[in-house]
Design brief:
Radius of gyration: 23 Å
Number of strands: 12
CATH class of the largest domain: Mainly Beta
Distance between the termini: 19 Å
Number of helices: 3
Helix content: under 10%
Shape: globular
CATH topology of the largest domain: Elongation Factor Tu (Ef-tu), domain 3
CATH superfamily of the largest domain: Translation factors
Order of helices and strands: EEEHEHEEEEHEEEE
Strand content: 35-45%
């Protein structure tokens, strides 16, 4: 069975083990997801499964989206995402829930990180800033020299410095599934997950052993 789901980040809590040690856990409302399309190497040149999540009102979707879903007798679904697979083992219309995973499984979770706006080098990359004493007045959080003078006489492309921070796709790897609640479509994973509360995430089986 395809081990992949779309969900929404609910928030964080903690669980206690038998020794009273608290472990941070992220709660995700994952699924139910519907298989909306199956792509094969023979037909499409690659193998993947498209899942849909989040039932919504039909008027919130375009005509093309509605036609794509109605073709397979599926409800209006707000979010569609593809999951790469080696061999598709599901069929159109299948319904996937948190039960595709088991407690103790290791997963990768991807989402859009919180946007921080334009930030300086100290916050964005952890630069140490300038000296704090000896007459220094306004270089506390300056990044310092970006390059040298005559050679190369410019700043190399990709150099770290101030700029837009956050609001990008981030994948956190190797998170352990702490618990499952199939009745409420909840899955709990150890540690933090990118994004704010209510943001969309995708959960897949861990790629790294």
């Amino acid at each position: 069975m395809l081990k992949g789901l779309i969900g929404k980040k609910v928030g964080m809590t903690q669980i206690l083990d038998e020794n009273g040690v608290a472990t941070p856990v992220t709660i995700i409302e994952a699924g139910p997801c519907y298989v909306t399309q199956v792509r094969t190497v023979a037909k499409n040149g690659y193998a993947a499964v498209q899942l849909g999540f989040g039932e919504t009102k039909p008027e919130r979707l375009t005509g093309g989206q509605l036609g794509h879903l109605k073709r397979n007798d599926l409800p209006p679904l707000r979010f569609l995402r593809e999951f790469g697979v080696k061999e598709p083992d599901v069929k159109l219309g299948d319904k996937l829930t948190v039960e595709v995973f088991s407690e103790g499984d290791v997963v990768d979770i991807a989402g859009i990180s919180k946007g921080k706006g334009f930030q300086g080098g100290v916050k964005r990359y952890g630069f140490s800033g300038g000296p704090k004493t000896h007459g220094q007045s306004d270089r506390h959080r300056a990044p310092g020299a970006r390059s040298s003078g005559s050679t190369p006489g410019r700043v190399f492309k990709g150099s770290r410095g101030p700029g837009h921070m956050g609001s990008r796709r981030v994948t956190v790897s190797h998170l352990k599934v702490a618990f499952l609640d199939p009745e409420r479509n909840l899955i709990g994973v150890h540690g933090g997950v990118p994004g704010a509360k209510g943001s969309l995430v995708t959960i897949t089986e861990a790629r790294k052993a």
